[in-house]
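As described in the Methods, two query proteins were run sequentially through the folding procedure within a single session, without resetting any intermediate state between them. The first query and its resulting structure tokens are shown here.
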Amino acid sequence: MTRPVTLVEPGTVRLERLLPGPVERVWSYITESDKRARWLAAGEFDLRLGGKIRLQFDNAKLSRGEVPESHKGRGQGTFEGAITRLEPNRLLAHTWDWSEKGHGGGNTEVTYELTPKGKNVLLVITHRRMPKELVTAVMGGWDAHSAILQDLLEGKEPRSFWTEHAKLEKEYAAAQ
């Protein structure tokens, strides 16, 4: 089965997912803390070049289901960064500082691109400069998080983040 996240070069992953539109609705789920908290992480984004971003993760709140033993203690934390590109309703890029999280990664960078496709929107997320040891976990994370976003936009009960993430992380690791 083809997964929506691919490793495009060492330390860079790319997700492509077709979501129900319109673009403005999907954009709001990326940029507004209360909506983003339902699929990824809460935290304010100062929507201007150089503006600060904060991602406050609490994956246990994303959906129903138990946290697998292998993932206990994971999925919480706060990350900061700054906006590096901004084209409202089309593109947002920001740094994501991992340096204090024990991964030795420093600043990674995430780009969200939205392209209208009829009534749908193609969401492309590219995450660059990741430490090698995090790549498969991040691939599974983006796949699981964006699947929950798709569920929300389709008006469905969100799937279990932890069940989905644990399964996907193993699939991505086996494919590497």
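Immediately afterward, the second query was submitted; its sequence and tokens are:
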Amino acid sequence: MIEITGKHFNKIHRYRRVWPKYSTQKLNIAAANCKAFDKEIVGSAKDLWLEMRSLKIRGTFENWCSFYKSKPYIQNIPQQTDKLFAMIQKMEIGGVTRDMCEDYIWEVLENKTHMGMAREEMAIEAVANYYKLPYRFSTAEEETQGIEGWIGDDIPVQVKPEDSVFKAHVHNHPDRNKVLLVTYESKNFKCYIHNPDFYQQKAKQ
């Protein structure tokens, strides 16, 4: 495993709301059940992020929020909030109000999306710089295949948070024979290449 520390990680800052204990876990399950984050309705985070970056807009939290709110998808937030709250009631989950449902939707669309997209971008950039190769970020379709970006001509990279990639409940575990697995630490501005031998094998081909 190779550890990389990049100064550019400092461009990213965590913006997190404070939630009552266990409330986001309940909201996450309810949101999945009612498809609160259907890409056709609230937009594809990956596509929107790539669009924003293609316009040379820096990937700050403030820029991301402003860019997302400039899109017509925000008109659908009230109906998605209603769907989420209806599912909360159907599941008989107590202690969660409609206002909390709306806050959670914005938490995901703004805070969590920015954290995920920005960290992926910075991790891919750090790895490409380490190997002194060009890079590009994946499309939304490639992301569904577990690829967050590419370095060189044909080396796919999968990026995951360090604190979740090896937990049993996390789906879509990486196939280290098919992707270069990179994880990042949110607090320490570090990332790790877990299978450098994959890069070495691809480089020899």
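Helices lie at 23-34, 39-42, 45-54, 61-69, 77-90, 98-131, 140-143, 196-204. We note this only descriptively and draw no conclusion about the first query from it.
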